[in-house]
Amino acid sequence: MVIQNLFLQGFRNYENFQCDFSSGVNLIVGQNAQGKTNLLEAICYLSRGAAFRTRKEAELIYFGADFAELSAVVRSYGREQTLRAVLFASRRPRQLFLSGVKKSSREDMDGVLHTVLFCPEDLMVLKKGAAERRKLLDDALCQLRPKYARALEEYKRLLAQKSAALRDRIDHPKMLELLPDYNERMAQTGAILITTRAKYLRHLAELAAAHHAAFSGGSERLRLNYQTVSTVTEPTAPALEVYAQLKEHQQSHYRAEVESMQCLSGPHKDDFEAALNDLPMKAFASQGQTRTAAISLKLAERDLFETDTGELPVLLLDDVLSELDPGRQDFVLNRIRNGQVFITCCEQDKVTDIGKTIHIQQGRLV
Ligand code: ATP
Ligand code: MG
Q1: Cα 316 to ligand 2 centre (Å)
Q2: In-domain check, residue 167
Q3: Same domain for 288 and 261
Q4: Quick one: pLDDT at residue 295?
Q5: In the prediction, which pLDDT does 73 show?
Q6: Measured in angstroms, how far is the CA atom of residue 362 from the centroid of ligand 1?
Q7: Residues 108-131: what's their mean pLDDT?
């Protein structure tokens, strides 16, 4: 997938902007607060129908303007198509167009432009709690596997219902009669979640490790270890086997769940451990190492998306160069040789020999 050009009018701090891009690396250079991240946000909006720093559309419109317009020509699956969005400051709903044809929903634009974004918040994936890491797996899998997305939605609904039944058991003891039914369906959907996550993570880990090794000049070995319900011996086994092991766990935790009034059994606590040269990253990784691993994960996610869909997503890297030593900076700038990449950075002297440098000042191209 390649974004050939971008046109912005009244988007964030861009009154009027137009630029052609390289199909390789696009280095977006400028001082702080000039609009570098805003540019990535515009691309993200066209790709996903939502910006990544805000949910409020009004914030995306140039202060005082009535509307914002974004459009880009994208080449994917052998076709050239134009994505266009118009956002209104008044209460009118936004309008989306695909090659000039108005579309009623964002889903109609799906598959034209896919982006993988790295933003500084993604560093938290490796440093913070399990929820962030589950989200990384869930977000990728929900896009790639509709069956997974349905299973996850159902699992979350069942979890909420079962948790409510356990929580209210003193006032409404009859609710406990529903537990066997919830458990049965949670074991069925849970087995789909576990087997899909485990297989995806196995591939992701392999690819991320290769990227991380190249990135670090061969000195660091990244490993990712899936952690799920303790009775599951082989998470990549057929779902039926995992289902039986989930039932076993539910049975042995039945009393504990009723006593603690909490749902203790199931893949909603899943996690994966990341280790560098066998040391857990959470406790031992340096800032540069964490950044290296987080970017390697994104590169791997992009590879897997390509394997599944046949097209390499556009890579958006916001503020990745800081904290990296010259060797690792060179990797980002010059050695990600497949597909289109956008990289924002503040330093003027950074160079890439496989693309284009775009200088931004106060929402303008200079
Ligand atoms: P940094 O190097 O610090 O990350 P940046 O170049 O990435 O900076 P952006 O976040 O892209 O900066 O742009 C921030 C600027 O855009 C801010 O000064 C902000 O006030 C301005 N801005 C954001 N939204 C709007 C808007 N709706 N209208 C006008 N200006 C806006
Ligand atoms: Mg920025």
Answers
A1: 12
A2: yes
A3: yes
A4: 94
A5: 98
A6: 9
A7: 91
pLDDT digits (tens, 9 = 90+) for 218-252: 999 999 999 999 999 999 999 999 999 999 999 99
For every residue of 236-283, DSSP letters joined together read TS-HHHHHHHHHHHHHHTHHHHHHHTS--SSGGG-EEEEEETTEEHHH
Q: Do 10 and 105 reside in the same domain of the chain? A: yes
Helix, coil or strand: residue 27: strand
What is the CATH number for 240? 1.20.1050.90
Token pair of 13 as six digits: 């701090």
Burial of 168 (0-12, 13-18, 19+ CB in 10 A): middle
Residues 31/347, Cβ–Cβ less than 8 Å: no
Please answer whether residues 317 and 291 qualify as being in contact, where contact means their C-beta atoms are separated by less than 8 angstroms: no
Greatest C-alpha distance within the chain: 69
Tokens of 147: 């069956």
CA proximity to 115, closest of 221, 1, 229, 228 = 1
Locate the ligand 1 atom nearest the alpha carbon of residue 62 and give its number.
Answer: 28
41 and 159 fall within a common domain: no
Q: Please state the domain count of the chain.
A: 2
Q: Does the pLDDT of residue 334 top 90, yes or no?
A: no
| Sheet containing 341-345: order of strands | 115-118, 314-317, 341-345, 25-29, 355-361, 364-365
Cβ pair 358, 29 in contact under 8 A: yes
Please, what is the average pLDDT of the chain? 95
* pLDDT tens for each residue of 304-315: 999 999 999 999
13 lines ligand 1 (CB under 6 A): yes
